[in-house]
Design brief:
alpha/beta, Chitobiase, domain 2, TIM Barrel, about 15% strand
Amino acid sequence: MPTRKSLFALLVLFVLIPSVLFPQIYSENYKHQQNDVMPYPANMVINRGLPFIVDNDFTVTSAIGASKKLSIAINDFAEKISRKTGIVINEENRFMSRTAGLLVYAENESPAGVITDESYTVEVAQYRIILKSKTDVGALRGLQTILQLVQFANGKYYVPACRISDAPRFPWRGLLIDVSRHFMPVEVIKRNIDGMTAVKLNVLHLHLADNQGFRVECKAFPKLHEMGSDGNYFTQEQIKDIIKYANDRGIRVVPEFDIPGHSTAWFAGYPEYASAPGPYEIERHFGVFDPCFDPTKESVYDFFDKFFAEMSALFNDEYIHIGGDENEGKQWDANADIQAFMKQNGFASNHELQAYFNKRIQKILEKYGKKMIGWDEIFSESLPKDILIHSWRGKEAMMKAAQLGYASILSSGYYIDLCQSVFDHYFNDPMPPDINLTSEEKKLILGGEATMWAELVNPDNVDSRIWPRTAAIAEVLWTGVKNFSADSLENKFILYRRFDNASNFLNTAGLKHQSNRKLMLANVTDKPELLENILKVWEPLKYYNRHKYTKYSQTTPLNRPVDIAVPDAPLSFEFNYLTKRILSRTAEAEEIESGRQAFLKLSKDCDAFLDGKKKEDYKDAELIAEKTKGISSIITTILYSLQKKERPGEETFNLDYYKGQTAELELSLLPALKELYDYVEKGKHLK
């Protein structure tokens, strides 16, 4: 076991040098090779044999003949190897047998848009890597694992000798991207598909229609996209292109058209289907709004029959998502005709009326060969057992559905737009060991989805909100929270290091979660490197608290420091970890000194940032820098007192000044600092 000189001995490096250095912390421990893969394989054994060297003679061969998907995957693999190592796998070295290379056996081709066998095995020896799978999609998953296993040491790139037998825990591992509230162009969707491929997610859920926009071309009802999108929508050819791009990478595409509520944009062009008279226009702000389809009009079902006929032909997945959430029924309550209809049919509540609507929609979808999926509000025992319940309000709805024979997936706890910590997501298991379900009921838990709602993201910062935290969610869905404990500091560090490694790997996949942040920083200040360091102790307000301070709309610029800062602020994590070690009396002197030096450096960065003229209209950055300087001074003073084994002296620190929000950011290290201050001020470190 290597020495734990601990994380904080590298704290100065963390501030100054990219976190790609993290793998070196456990370099003596051969097990780190497995930990560097995310999601880690179900079964992996690192052998003591000589590794496979990746050099200019490296070849890739498909032993049985490559399907179209596998051919695309091998070419992607070759390009990413080159991006990661600088070693070019020439065209003639792809799909050819050589002495030193990767041999791929994929027995069958998987149909597009269908859940399929994703299992694979890998055996790495000195002169050959052999990847075997029952399907080409399984081979795709194995190629991503091999990519992550490529290491660098002693001037060479290599893959450690190992044996892997891997298969996913759940068949449904998804990412929802909301393109309604803020539109995301095709290139944004495609690069996030590449990110999904890298971490073995297999369902792209496109939220295409909501109050703020209808985002797909509809030929039967052209006013949907003409009047409901501001011109920002996907043509049907673009949708076909996205679907093909995703299917070629073993990813399904499930469309969501949210009904009967969340529907203002529908009514901009077709107000006659609403429960209250128009006119309507696109909703520019965010929240829950009243407009809702009228479930009592037969013309509404004629409309949806034609609409879903067209969309069913366009989207090749077996499911269409109907939303169904957050319908408060205010328009229904105020409509005399709807109230009379409810009385005539014996409906005692709006929920019963919505169940009637859902049953009618389900029959239409069934007519066109589709199955219904919807948020947990759609649940009703009157619906057939082949519908899928998508739980956003909690695991209870998911469990209840399973107990009654309905399949379900989980998004509660995976709302990545809420800017929660990666640990909040990672330790949120759809099916924990103590779940109160029978073995048959457990089979109905199909997996889960990370959800990227788009009130506070645009094409510039959406990647940094999705990645790399979604890689941790992908691991839970692929393998599970297998070897980690939420209460273990050491395990949290291992996870954080792996999370950081995944971030760098995702760069090679083409994500812009790091590069776009640098561009945004350059727009905020002429000293972007300094502000980047300052933001390493700040995190965006969590949940929906930002809306308390700014009335956001589709036209609100998302170019402030809060839009650049990320959850899991790296320097805050390091300080929190150091504090726990100090309080448990396991921190070493060099760790404490490294921490003190890191915050001295941060204080100097603040001085340099505040020195001279800044760009106008970016006062947020100056205020953040001033507070960062103050908190850095407090931390260095306390750590110095700890080192000298004395109390801080007569100085009293007003930590309350740093509480709460500053420019919709918060200091996530503040609770740990309060603990440390109490510990030192009361002289507990002297005992």
